[in-house]
């Protein structure tokens, strides 16, 4: 299984009266494969989240295509689209804001399964397994997000993504809001999950050390353009446009 953005560009309209166009991604091609981690690196505003949202099907490219297992995302309907939704999950930077503060953890997790029409009788087993994978006990199910630490909430966000047995995870700076020791725990947990489940990751960060620890290959973006794409061993931080552009 693979997920590819092919020659993707994204243009936003800006301003209420004089509609200016702003190109935030230009002709970007990246591919995420099962069992591998592609690190997406770049300064703030370089287009990382925009690309991640397009790959997750949460936004549309202005031109170019997203391909999931040789099928174009735009043309997917019914069963095919449901399969994509299950297989490609996104985990965001701030776990607390991605969980509903008014709902218990248990309810938030069950809702994901309801949405995909997983029979009620299977909920308990699936949730229990996902909690085990992220190292939390069932005790958290009756708590609200504000009653958990940042690290625990990020584990819940990860458990929620894992409920659907995804093949690709898009991780948008998932440790950015955590302190250093908790960050290390989550990074190690992600590596362990990948080792046992063979999930493909797109890992977004602007920390070179995290990129090196997590990635098999790296794509570096500057002003929406790819300035490096290749194995992590060949990557040097701050590749400038065109200077080190290589195909993996
Ligand atoms: N909905 C939108 N409308 C207009 N411009 C947008 C929109 N979303 C993002 N942008 C702009 O697109 C550019 C890229 O944003 P994006 O969030 O993808 O960058 P990023 O690399 O993820 O940044 P960060 O590391 O700070 O999260 C930024 O200049 C941002 O202001």
UniProtKB/TrEMBL annotation:
Keywords, comma-separated and alphabetical: ATP-binding, Nucleotide-binding, Transport
Pfam families per the UniProt record, alphabetical: ABC_tran
BP GO terms, sorted: transmembrane transport
ABC transporter domain sequence ranges: 3-248
InterPro entries hit by this protein: AAA+_ATPase, ABC_transp_ATP-bind, ABC_transporter-like_ATP-bd, P-loop_NTPase
Entry annotated with the keyword Transferase: no
Gene Ontology MF: a single term: ATP binding
Family from the record: Belongs to the ABC transporter superfamily.
Protein name listed in UniProt: ABC transporter related protein
Organism annotation: Methanothrix thermoacetophila (strain DSM 6194 / JCM 14653 / NBRC 101360 / PT)
